[in-house]
Amino acid sequence: MKFELTILGCGSATPTSVRNPSAQVLNILERFFLIDCGEGTQVQLRKFRIKMQRINHIFISHLHGDHYFGLIGLISSMHLLGRKHALQVYAHPDLEKIIQMQLKASDTRLNYQLHFHELQYDKNTLLVDDPYYSVETIVLKHRIPCCGFLFREKPRLKSLRKEKLAEYDIPLSAIPGLREGKDYITPSGAVIPNAEITMNAPPPRAYAYCSDTAYNEQIAEQIKNVDLLYHEATFSQEQEKRANKTFHSTALQAASIAAKANVKKLIIGHYSARYKNIQPLVLEARAVFPETVPAADGEVYKVSLA
Amino acid sequence: MKFELTILGCGSATPTSVRNPSAQVLNILERFFLIDCGEGTQVQLRKFRIKMQRINHIFISHLHGDHYFGLIGLISSMHLLGRKHALQVYAHPDLEKIIQMQLKASDTRLNYQLHFHELQYDKNTLLVDDPYYSVETIVLKHRIPCCGFLFREKPRLKSLRKEKLAEYDIPLSAIPGLREGKDYITPSGAVIPNAEITMNAPPPRAYAYCSDTAYNEQIAEQIKNVDLLYHEATFSQEQEKRANKTFHSTALQAASIAAKANVKKLIIGHYSARYKNIQPLVLEARAVFPETVPAADGEVYKVSLA
């Protein structure tokens, strides 16, 4: 019952020797979602032992190169390594044109279906609606169209107290309703409260990815109470002007969003290459939101079922 | 007086954990030439301590991704790191379209001039003609238009025997002619042979890059006697059929070309990812051409002045 995030790259515009550009993989119940795909992502996947062919959905936040330059290489390697099953890519429509032009230049006809889904940037939209999870966009503020992604498990059905089923002689036909939370009405018309017969399922887990963005309080409501929030912290508060100018956030601002949204844990990342040591960014964020951790390439964050 | 080749990547289509895709840097007298630019090249440059801004010429053999997917990232990083001076790229014209589309998608206006030069693939052409060196194409045989590159130093002027200048009381005005090899005619009409007054300069050095290509004897004449030949050896001879089918060469074929061209040293590379251990490829080549060495990422080959 995994819900597990692996950071493949947490650098920003220019890669450094220790930080690849943006990319991460979210594993929800053994479905693998790739979020952004900076240059070198395919090698990072190999390094951190995540099988590229298990990725069926790729979400690209925006078309700055540090978030997508690795996509064509990954798509090509998936092809060369024999992929047959479809791949879904959620991105700005220009990305499809770029990728198709690159495939044409190398005279490549993919062995698998590559489906592009056009993102909208002006409002939250539901991208994937599966029985077990959903993915929706988060409206971000950046120099070019950009959005974040919110991954949520669907609520689980309640489990049943077997002794109560026997006690009230509950028929099978009533079970689905009970698991969804309905009360039980006995043949004589008595109401048995659902809580007496069932146990609550563990709450669904959620992860929000917010990179790249200027400080934007409006997202707090949408990402309220998520288990994990990755929020960019390109700069420290000292560089607030530069952050504003470039539509990025400071560590303090990331922490403010985490506090307003009452998330359980904040992961900061997308650090400017100027920060060899990111400890000052971490301390700055923790002063506002103590449950802050710094992203690092290869780091894994697990959310257990409560 | 450097003439020095650094391998940045010697893998083929899919990168492995130890081999990046094709890229190398040739340093001729402190001019830096980048030859091919697979994904991850900018990180390799950093790793092997070659300053990216010193590269002014980039040569892309063909548009299979393992030879150019790293170019847009390098171009972007050059921009972000403040480059002001022009960059020359020699490639198939489709590459310019791809790069321009990528720059447009990210709303990037480069701070420096990016000049694309269209390659021709049906005949050898002179690409760069500098007082100190030249670069020309080598016609290769691949699935899509592809060429190699031949880098040559220009011949150096002869140096003078000072005692002879005094002995024959040679005027300054005669010096340039003597250094170019002319005999000296004394005021009384006597001919002093050039060899008596000058010493030969060390011969110009040359490097030939041949990847990707099917076996093609016709290149031997053009690359005759070069100091260094990099020739792809994607497969071993056991896989000759596969090599033919995919327009690649075997190690044995690479060695045959080296022998026919009488080169001084052969570097094999562009190994298929199937070869974890490339020793069998090396032995296969050495049986035909003993002066064979295997490329490895980070390896440096120096050619001294004779």
Could you list some keywords that capture this structure?
306 residues; homodimer; alpha/beta
State the order of secondary-structure elements of chain A, H for helix, E for strand: EEEHEHEHEEEEEHHEEHEEHEHHEHEE
Structural class of chain A: alpha/beta
Strand content of chain A: 25-35%
List the chains of the largest interface with their residue counts.
A-B, 35 and 35 residues
Summarize this entry quickly.
The structure is a homodimer. Chain A has helices at about 40-45, 70-80, 95-105, 160-165, 175-180, 195, 220, 240-245, 250-260, 280-285, and strands spanning about 5-10, 25-30, 30-35, 55-60, 85-90, 115-120, 125-130, 135-140, 145-155, 160, 185, 190, 200, 205-210, 230, 265-270, 290-295, 300.
Describe the protein in words.
Two copies of one chain form a homodimer. Chain A is of the alpha/beta class and 306 residues long. Chain A contains ten helices and 18 strands. In chain A, the strands form four sheets. A seven-stranded mixed beta sheet of chain A has the order 6-5-4-3-2-1-18. In chain A, helix 9 runs parallel beside helix 10. The longest helix of chain A has 13 residues. Chain A is globular, with a radius of gyration of 22 Å. The termini of chain A are close together. The mean pLDDT of chain A is 96. Chains A and B meet through helix 1, helix 2 and helix 3 of A and helix 1, helix 2 and helix 3 of B.
Write the layout of secondary structure elements.
The structure is a homodimer of 306-residue chains.
Chain A: E1 3-9, E2 23-28, E3 31-37, H1 41-47, E4 55-59, H2 71-80, E5 87-91, H3 93-105, E6 114-118, E7 126-129, E8 133-139, E9 147-153, E10 159-160, H4 162-167, H5 175-180, E11 184-185, E12 191-192, H6 194-197, E13 198-199, E14 206-210, H7 219-222, E15 228-232, H8 240-245, H9 251-261, E16 265-269, H10 279-286, E17 292-294, E18 300-302
Parallel strand pairs in A: 3-4, 4-5, 5-6, 14-15, 15-16, 16-17
Antiparallel strand pairs in A: 1-2, 1-18, 2-3, 7-8, 8-9, 9-14, 10-13, 11-12
Helix pairs in contact in A: 9-10
